[in-house]
Design goal:
Layout: E1 3-11, E2 14-24, H1 43-46, H2 51-63, H3 79-92, E3 98-108, E4 111-122, E5 131-137, H4 155-172, E6 181-186, H5 194-206, E7 214-220, E8 237-242, H6 249-264, E9 269-272, H7 285-289, E10 295-300, H8 320-339, E11 348-353, E12 356-360, E13 369-376, E14 384-388, E15 392-396, E16 402-410, E17 423-424, E18 431-432
Parallel strand pairs: 5-6, 5-7, 7-10, 8-9, 11-18
Antiparallel strand pairs: 1-2, 1-15, 3-4, 4-6, 8-10, 11-12, 12-15, 13-14, 13-16, 16-17
Length: 433
């Protein structure tokens, strides 16, 4: 049965004479319906996502034969050293991009190797804005995890993630954005997340990037294939994994990514997962969430586990159209984080009444309106995403259904900003009959 919502907009402390009523079917596990907002800043970038360029990156990475941590460091056309230089050269070709590396050592199976994380910095226009990081590991591994010379092409795992990383950097760096963006190619993921752990332990503190400053980490890992080892196909969705504590900053970020996809009508449906990662698997996002940073992992809806970490992880397994659409979806999410207005402050549920909830928040400079996200009891996702016009709202609904509210500002371009942390309806102010 549809649940009827009614919004009574309040401006400058006085009630408006108009009432909007919306009838909506609610499903606990379903993402919010698409808005399909036409952002004047996002659309030109989406049109430039290039499947041929994405596949070319994967071909280059595969051609190095292996990117194992013990593979050659100084050969021009083989090994992890060649892959590292490839990333550096690609980032350096983007005018104005600041490119650096973080060197570290790792010991794996009794052998010590010196490796590098590759870091590209695209400065934002607002020094006070939060920093956003997009990362993908560029190392690979094969059946014999100790063999640095065995074939480990790593096309899907994780050439696909690196290809998307480079394409996102190319496009987002080409246009102004509020937040400074870090694009990072992590090494030594396959041997225990060593590269990302060193990044969190050493690089972030050296740059003053504490959890309040680095507000979002988007990890791209295995995003290029739409089928699994059984031949099943899912080319309509992409999964997002995050720390399961609820509430947690990482789970809030995961919900935000889905809200952005719904708001803009992204190419792929984002499917939130209840777990930190797949069963008995891991990813670089864990290094960040373990240290208190909001971090999520994007992974294709299906994956061929029999080809991972073998000589069979080849570019033939990559679906170019799925990878293009996945990259466009990721561009939608990262663009929102990069250009959107800051989260509203002093968000509060003033009271529960016999009509519903009275909500308020401080105005955000530059806001042209706001978007309210509502989550229902027992739901993993934001169940509804609704546009509102002012900073004071009376939400009419059965008081026992809503669990929490979150709000974000949108600007005149239609771009949606960062969602403030959820406000629990259970902790609402005193009931006023």
């Amino acid at each position: 049965m549809p649940i009827v919502f009614a919004l009574l907009i309040v401006s400058a402390g006085t009630f408006s004479a108009s009432m909007q009523e919306v009838s909506i079917e609610v499903a606990n596990s379903a993402p919010p319906a698409h808005f399909r907002v036409l952002s004047s800043t996002l659309l030109p970038l989406l049109e430039q996502v290039d499947a041929e360029r994405l596949m070319s990156h994967i071909e280059s990475l595969q051609s190095f034969r292996t990117r194992h941590v013990h593979s050659p460091k100084h050969m021009a056309d083989q090994g992890i050293g060649a892959a590292c230089r490839y990333l550096m050269d690609e980032f350096a070709a983007m005018p104005g991009m600041r490119v650096t590396t973080q060197e570290f050592q790792t010991q794996w199976m009794g052998t010590t190797s010196t490796l590098q994380n590759v870091i590209a910095i695209s400065p934002g226009t607002d020094e006070d804005a939060a920093v956003i990081l997009v990362g993908a590991h560029y190392d690979s591994i094969s059946l014999d995890a100790t063999d640095g010379f065995a074939a480990a092409p790593g096309a899907v795992d994780n050439g696909s993630g690196v290809a998307a990383l480079l394409e996102l950097a190319r496009l987002l760096h080409s246009t102004p954005h509020r937040s400074t963006l870090l694009f990072v190619g992590f090494s030594a993921e396959e041997v225990g997340l060593v590269g990302s752990r060193r990044f969190v332990e050493q690089y972030l503190p050296s740059e003053g990037l504490h959890p309040g400053r680095l507000r979002a980490v988007i990890n791209l890992d295995i995003i290029g294939s739409s089928s699994d080892e059984r031949g099943r196909i899912n080319d309509a969705a992409i999964r997002v994994f995050s720390a399961p504590d609820d509430p947690s900053q990482s789970r809030h970020l995961a919900r935000m990514t889905q809200a952005y996809a719904a708001y803009y009508g992204a190419d792929l449906q984002i499917e939130l997962q209840e777990t930190l990662d797949r069963l008995n698997r891991f990813g670089d996002h864990q290094s960040f969430s373990n240290a208190g940073y909001p971090a999520v992992r994007f992974t294709s809806a299906l994956e061929n586990r029999y080809h991972q970490h073998t000589p069979l992880d080849l570019i033939a397994d990559v679906n170019p159209e799925y990878l293009r659409r996945a990259t466009r979806t990721l561009l939608t999410v990262v663009h929102a984080l990069a250009v959107g207005l800051p989260a509203p402050e002093r968000v509060a549920i003033l009271s529960r009444t016999d009509s519903g909830y009275e909500l308020t928040w401080e105005p955000v400079s530059g806001a042209d309106g706001y978007v309210l996200a509502i989550r229902h009891e027992g739901s993993l996702v934001f169940d509804e995403v609704r546009a509102v016009g002012t900073t004071r709202v009376l939400w009419h609904e059965d008081a026992g259904v809503v669990t929490s509210f979150a709000v974000a500002a949108r600007d005149a371009n239609g771009d949606l900003g960062y969602f403030a942390g959820e406000q629990s309806a259970l902790a609402a102010g005193e009931w006023h009959a």
